[in-house]
Amino acid sequence: VALASGAAIWEGLGWGLGLQWLPPFSRVVEELAQFLGSGVILSNLRSSLSGLMVGFAFSLLLGLFIGALMGRYRPIERALDVYVHALFVCPSILFAPIFFAIFGLSDAARIAIIVVYSTFVIVINTATAIRTVDPSLVEMAYSFGCRERQIFTRILLPASLPMVFPGIRLGMGRAVKGMINGEMLIAFVGLGALAQKYGAQFDAAKVYAIAMVVLIIGLVSNAVVQTVENRLTRWAD
To answer: Do 149 and 89 form a contact (C-beta atoms < 8 A)?
Structure first.
């Protein structure tokens, strides 16, 4: 009902106000249907999704690894904390010219942007989650002769998952933003390149149609992470 109401309001404002930057919702849907029929969206969608999956996979591995070390070992936290928080609050798009100079017009440049966008929120959440694990569980593991690797794999990581996954969801959302920004400003491929092309032509209906595809990608990605979270943290309920 909420989505239908929003679409109806959008349609009414589009026809009533007659603004160039606010086309009616029906026109946006028509443009989206034409994109799908011509295959333009699907070919660019494959390029965008491939970069998103690779970039987010790197972000996930780096974020979980560095976050786990920071949460477990205080010296590592004191050494890295200032850098992690500085890079987290710094606008990630500022790194676009640097990655362009290093990698040029390549997939590596936009993947690097995705990694910078999404890694640090995962690091911060993972470190916080590890620190909040009940210390008595770790003490019990030590008393049974567990090694450090076993404490990580059997105690710390499983017990911290309910707090780790919110960071992963936030990281996925930021990865989608990084995907679009990287494609618009560096690689000029995928959905970002389409948005840049039609934005330069002031074709608002086509830009909104591409934005709807990006929105669907974000919602589906979040739903996938939520499904994995529900399966892995079922015990927490």
So the answer is: no
pLDDT tens profile 130-139: 998 888 888 8
Distance CA(114)–CA(175), nearest Å, equals: 5
Instruction: For 83-118, write each residue's pLDDT tens digit.
Output: 999 989 888 888 888 888 888 777 888 889 999 999
pLDDT in tens, 187-196: 677 788 888 8
Residue showing tokens 């039609």:
198
**DSSP one-letter string for the chain:** -HHHHHHHHHHHHHHHH--TTS--HHHHHHHHHHHHHHTHHHHHHHHHHHHHHHHHHHHHHHHHHHHHHHHH-HHHHHHHHHHHHHHHHS-GGGGHHHHHHHH-SSHHHHHHHHHHHHHHHHHHHHHHHHHTS-HHHHHHHHHTT--HHHIIIIIIHHHHHHHHHHHHHHHHHHHHHHHHHHIIIII--HHHHHHHHHHHTT-HHHHHHHHHHHHHHHHHHHHHHHHHHHHHTGGG-
Q: Render the burial of 162-179: b for 16+ CB within 10 Å, e for the rest.
A: bbbbebbbbbbbbbbbbb
